[in-house]
Design brief:
Layout lengths: L2 E9 L3 E8 L5 E7 L9 H10 L10 E6 L4 E6 L3 E2 H8 L7 H20 L2 E2 L8 E3 L5 E3 L6 E2 L19 H4 L8 H16 L9 H12 L4 H10 L16 H4 L5 H10 L10 H4 L3 H4 L19 E2 L2 E5 L5 E5 L8 E2 L5 E5 L31 E7 L39
Antiparallel strand pairs: 1-2, 2-3, 3-5, 4-5, 6-8, 7-10, 8-9, 11-14, 12-13, 15-16
Helix pairs in contact: 3-5, 5-9
Length: 423
């Protein structure tokens, strides 16, 4: 093997992970050795992980360098990251809670990586702090695609035994097998709340108890919501639960800014069709308004002008690490945001058909990723602003060739952010 095992990092049911070094380049890597069963062969989780991660190429997704397959061994070679988000919170946080600027940076990167996955029609299905890796530069990488799978049209029936319990969406807890990208959005909301408080938000013992824990915080859904979900997903089963009122987010997340509470509220909607797309969430004021991480300060910079999304800069954390942060001003180095109101809706995608879609989704450069091997289609729809949804039938419209020709833009050489010409 062209790699040397240095030390054991961890072991799970299906694999053992080692820190390693390349014999050719001396680069430090992570070696994931899959446990092979002589009778069962290669686990389906490994096949999924390899097939998907070979295609995904993005700064916020763990990079798969190589696959070594012999008669007795299967080893996946990944880029090396120092720790996962859970360990980072334990070592750098105050009782696990991270400072507002760090939460903002990690959430921005998590949503960027998630948006890229969804744009490529990949559901991760197991987003949690243990599957988010942090390197020494403060870059967040989404890893462990063992439960991930591709989705599209026609809609398939998926397993509801996905996502670690505490990060599992209520529609999945209720038995849905016809879910979409919204299940990952729910997990993102749970992760954001956990970074703010240092503790998992919903801590159930099993599916019914987890559903109860969710309703004790976000409230018992109205009958019309349950009826709507049941009509859209016949697999859903909902028992009678007590009527819990919704707890105000400032009570759950003391000290969090109003924008942070609002974003979490949007991500953690009981009805999956009410959750925003990851792409839409990136334009939430929590990321564009410089006051978002100064909840109790009156002497803060003015909000970013409408239509301008700050360019990324490095923010130095208290521990000396640098992380990507939007620049809170319309100064040199800022870039124009994606055209707002939005102009297009992705076609043939049940998840994205109902959300504002970024005009650049076809080539994936919008979030630093590389093109995939598919031809995206777009449908012209009425313009919408943040938080508004396109007509649910927009994905049935016929795209015109001239609407599919999207301009390419240069990308920042380090962060992989797109740079838009000034207006």
């Amino acid at each position: 093997m062209n790699y040397i095992q240095l030390e054991k990092l961890g072991e799970g049911t299906y694999a053992t992970v080692y820190k390693g070094r390349s014999r050719a380049t001396n680069e430090i890597v992570a070696l994931k050795e899959i446990h092979l069963d002589p009778e069962e062969g290669t686990p389906s989780t490994a096949i999924r992980e390899i097939s998907l991660m070979k295609e995904l190429n993005h700064p916020n997704i763990l990079h798969l360098y190589d696959v070594i397959h012999t008669e007795n061994k299967l080893v996946l070679v990944f880029e090396y990251c120092d720790q996962d988000l859970k360990r980072y919170m334990d070592t750098h946080g105050v009782r696990g809670a991270l400072d507002p600027a760090t939460v903002r940076s990690f959430m921005y990167q998590l949503l960027r990586g998630t948006a890229y996955c969804h744009d490529n029609r990949v559901l991760h299905r197991d987003l949690k702090p243990q599957n988010l890796l942090i390197n020494r530069k403060g870059e967040l990488k989404i890893g462990d695609f063992g439960l991930a799978r591709a989705y599209g049209v026609p809609v398939n029936t998926y397993s509801n035994e996905v996502v670690t319990l505490w990060y599992r969406a209520p529609d999945v807890l209720m038995g849905s097998r016809n879910y979409d990208a919204a299940i990952d959005i729910w997990s993102c909301g749970c992760i954001m709340a956990e970074m703010i408080t240092g503790m998992p938000l919903f801590r159930g013992r099993d599916n019914p108890d987890q559903l109860l824990a969710i309703m004790k915080i976000i409230g018992t859904p109205e009958d019309r919501v349950i009826k709507k979900m049941a009509q859209e997903t016949p697999d859903i089963q909902f028992k009678s639960y007590p009527r819990f009122p919704k707890v105000p987010w400032p009570n759950i997340l003391p000290g969090a800014s109003a924008q942070a509470c609002d974003l979490i509220d949007r991500l953690l909607q009981f009805d999956p069709t009410s959750r925003p797309h990851a792409l839409d969430a990136l334009f939430h004021p929590y990321f564009t308004d410089p006051t978002a991480h100064h909840p109790n300060s009156s002497s803060v910079p003015q909000p970013v002008p409408v239509g301008v999304m700050p360019a990324p800069v490095f923010h130095v954390l208290p521990n000396g690490q640098s992380v990507y942060m939007p620049q809170p001003s319309n100064a040199p180095g800022t870039r124009a945001a994606a055209p707002q109101p939005y102009q297009y809706a992705a076609m043939n995608d049940p998840s994205m058909a109902r959300h504002p879609a970024y005009p650049e989704q076809g080539h994936h450069a919008a979030f630093g990723g590389q093109p995939m091997h598919h031809a995206p289609q777009y449908a012209q729809v009425p313009t919408y602003g943040y938080g508004q949804h396109v007509h649910p039938q927009s994905h049935l419209q016929q795209a015109q060739p001239q609407q599919q020709q999207q301009p390419q833009h240069p990308v920042y050489p380090v962060a992989g952010y797109p740079q838009y010409p000034g207006r």
